[in-house]
Known about the structure:
The protein is an all-alpha fold. The chain has helices spanning 2-36, 38-70, 77-102, 115-154; strands at 105-106, 111-112. Helix 2 (38-70) runs antiparallel to helix 3 (77-102). The model has no long low-confidence stretch (mean pLDDT 86).
Amino acid sequence: MIRSMWQCLLIMFWASWWGGLTFYGLFVVREASEVVGQTTEGFVTQRVTQWLNWVATALIVLLLIEVLHTWRTGRPWRAVSAAILVMAAAQLALFALHRMLDHLVNSSEQTILAPERFHALHEWYLTITTMQWVTGIVVVWLVVGRPLAATRNREPSA
């Protein structure tokens, strides 16, 4: 029962982060740019990505707890640990880049102070976010999907 609740918590955090990031990237950014303009949309993005970064951080902590709790169970914990390490390194980079990007904007006037530098850093931000997003798929498969598939394979057929 507790194990099921724990897995549910992991799935909910993963879905909140991965699903939120996916929905945001696919729909919100484009629609917001069309409605309020690209620069104004960027200031909304600035706030939303702060929340996505903190949800990702909470997920990484929960995943580390999962690895520490289950590393002797036969699960491919080295692969899980490596994927979590990639996610954590990406998250640290995203926090650092976010801080650098924040210093390149004037929120009260909604202007970008150094557009070329801002856009170069923003491209890195998007690249690292994409890498983390893909790694998130691998992590959820290794932590939740693979064990569930193994459980189904052990069940006797009717």
